Amino acid sequence: MKVLVINAGSSSLKYQLMDPATRDVLAKGLCERIGIDGRLTHKVPAKDQKFEAEIAMPTHAEAIEAVLQALTDSDHGVIASMDEIDAVGHRVLHGGMAFTESCIIDDACIEAIKECIPLGPLHNPANLMGIEACQKVMPTKPQVAVFDTAFHMTMPEKAFTYAIPYEYYEKDKVRRYGFHGTSHRYVSARAAALMGRDPKGLKLISCHLGNGSSLAAIVDGKCVDTTMGLGPLAGVPMGTRAGDMDATILEYLMGRYGYDIKEMLTILNKKSGVLGISGVSSDFRDLESAAAEGNHRARLALDVFYYDVKKYIGAYAAAMGGVDGIIFTAGVGENAAGTRMAIASGLEYMGVKMDEEKNNTRGKEAIISADDSKVTVMVIPTDEELMIASDTAEIVSKL
């Protein structure tokens, strides 16, 4: 089965055409500047081929048309016609409480996604544009929605409930939702396979560390807690997001500088995190270089990040009553050996024992703890697109 995976943003659209059974990526690419002018970058991994073009994309529908033309092109295409595409899988950020798993996109699904727009105001409208564009251009193809929040819907009440008046949960659905769920689900399943264990009985901590970061506590293959909350601002400090903080800070800064809530949230989402501390960059590679040259604030930004991730690992181990495995994934987690070592160092009391030579790896699955470590520490590159394609294929095969 060939599945087209779509990840639509407000002015961009990422895509992959893949066979989930073989894990082969036939083609992938990016449409940019939708609604402005339009640019397509199309890659064929098997041929190491890259095609770029300026194409008018007034809406997402034209972007999808450009993708289909690229996929079927006589020179850089990988299929003879769009008839070879069996289904389309869409990444959707926020499914609220309505979705605990992936589902076929129908009118009821679309209405439920629309109802979640207040919870995901930046992403859900863009995801809907991608869905509607595909429905317009490929009306006969089955389409599946895969939600970032769905994996976390197994959290118990004690983990997702905020200590504010309960009416806000009852009336307004204010609770912890969590994100990066597709990534956490994929790497936790791969971790069980790598350890040669059944997911049932396993206690795992998944560390999705990148420009956006979150951790998840996973028992028996199900999420029991996660660091992000109602939105993706909570948890550990990130590239530009503040992470957990005292809400009094908002009142203090807004009163002192006259910020309105929109300005304050822009600061917390776009100007904070390791960028805010360092004043150097939101890119961890830049911070490591600056820290090595003696920049105190860059070193401090890294230390704050390491410290907070380590705190959550300890907290989740306590909440689960132990831990069997710790997973590092996403851009920083997969590629930064120094970051992994800094976070894992000091966890010996939990049974973590790292192997420096094994840890010297980038972008591939590996066990990086010592052979006699009581806790297995792993690097597992995430593959959200494969997870979306797999879900889509499974659901469509039952139609």
Describe the overall structure:
The protein is an alpha/beta fold and 399 residues long. The chain folds into two domains: 3-147, ATPase, nucleotide binding domain (Nucleotidyltransferase, domain 5); 197-384, 2-Layer Sandwich (Nucleotidyltransferase, domain 5). The chain has 15 helices and 14 strands. It has helices at 60-72, 107-115, 124-137, 157-160, 167-172, 181-195, 248-257, 261-270, 273-278, 284-292, 296-320, 330-335, 337-344, 356-359, 384-397; strands at 3-8, 13-19, 24-32, 39-44, 49-54, 87-92, 103-104, 143-147, 203-208, 214-219, 222-226, 325-329, 366-367, 376-379. The protein has an eight-stranded mixed sheet, sandwiched between helices. A hairpin with a 2-residue loop joins strand 10 and strand 11 (222-226). Helix 1 packs across helix 3 (124-137) and helix 10 (284-292) crosses helix 11 (296-320). It is globular, with a radius of gyration of 22 Å. The model has no long low-confidence stretch (mean pLDDT 95). Pathway: Metabolic intermediate biosynthesis; acetyl-CoA biosynthesis; acetyl-CoA from acetate: step 1/2. One of its GO terms (cellular component) is cytoplasm. GO terms for molecular function: acetate kinase activity; ATP binding; magnesium ion binding. ATP binds at residues 14, 208-212, 283-285, 331-335. Substrate binds at residue 91.
